[in-house]
Amino acid sequence: IIQDRIFGAPAHPSLLWNNPPGALLALPTFSTSPSDFPFYHLQRGSRPASRFSALIWVGAPGQPPLKLIQAVAGSQHCAQILVLWSSEKPPPSRWPKTAVPLTVLAGQRKASDRFFPHRALSTDAILSLDAQSSLTTSEVDFAFVVWQSFPERMGGFLTWSHFWDEARGGWGHTAEKANEFSMVLTSAAFYHRYYHTLFTHSLPKALRTLADEAPSCVDVLMNSLVAAVTKLPPIKVPYGKQRLEASPPLAPGGPDPQPPAQDCINQMAAEFGYMPLVSSRLRLDPVLFKDPVSVLRKKYRSLEKP
After folding, report:
1. Where, residue-wise, is CATH 3.90.550.10 in the chain?
2. Structure confidence at residue 15 as a pLDDT band (50, 70, 90)
């Protein structure tokens, strides 16, 4: 704040100070222009660019996600595909030919590496994917169009919800289907690349270490970070096919000491000093979704196929 008062040229613009989340969360090492952050499009009357980068994280067992690459590359909004190879096995020598550039990055075999601000990312929008993810081109297209209206939030398909367990005196989270949700899984989610910078440079070191020790915590940590900054819940879009939901995480408590994977939500809340996650009941569907009209009138027809 003092530097902004004294040095006029490199000071934060007034828009950053006078609109949430505030200039302290708009790191000048990332940019000094409000248009580069995900928070100020509404005030500026702008929208994010209509292109995204797909970042596919490949861990164990390290099988190349060939079908997923083809589905994502078929999106009209895809600008590039980055494969973050973090498996012990070497990557294949040949990859499928795609209409967009495909780059293989060497990972450090750490879960937090998937949220590192890689210089190869050329777009503001990132589609985070796991090698085991299964999406169609229509699902990718629709989810991205929805995310463009909410660039400060995360948008995804599979959801978790958090809850307070009065009997055990701690927070828990579950993948069971319910009306409310507060997290979208980063195995298939859109968000702004600025959150990679915040995750790497602003998240407490203890939480980044926790993500590496318990990879299942990365979803909780990334959603908590975005919620702490925006004070808003994520956005959910429909899955076209009936896929198996992720196995629900266990709630806190129990007679035995819990490993970090089961208790990361409580460690996260302790580091933040409060519970940042925000619940929502909103799901955005395409127009005429599951309406009894001709399929020729529907833009995302494949989303309704069983």
Report:
1. 47-241+260-300
2. confident
pTM of the entire predicted model: 0.86
CA distances from 229 to 175, 195, 305 (A): 24, 10, 37
Task: List residues bridging with 192 in a β-sheet.
Answer: 125
Strands 183-184 and 159-165, bridge-based pairing = antiparallel
Angstrom distance (rounded) from CA 298 to CA 41: 29
- The CATH homologous superfamily to which domain 47-241+260-300 belongs is Spore Coat Polysaccharide Biosynthesis Protein SpsA; Chain A (3.90.550.10)
Q: Measured between alpha carbons, how far is 234 from 184 in angstroms, rounded to an integer?
A: 7
Q: Are 222 and 199 in contact (CB under 8 A)?
A: yes
Q: How far is CA 77 from CA 141, 173, 263, 264, 275, in A?
A: 7, 33, 38, 35, 35
Contact (Cβ atoms closer than 8 angstroms) between residue 282 and residue 235: yes
Contact 129, 56 (CB under 8 A): yes
Q: Which of 234, 110, 112, 260 is nearest to 181 (CA)?
A: 234
Averaged pLDDT, 1-25: 77
Q: Element (H or E) spanning 4, and its range?
A: helix 2-6
Return the sign of the alpha-carbon dihedral for residues 135, 139, 141, 143. negative
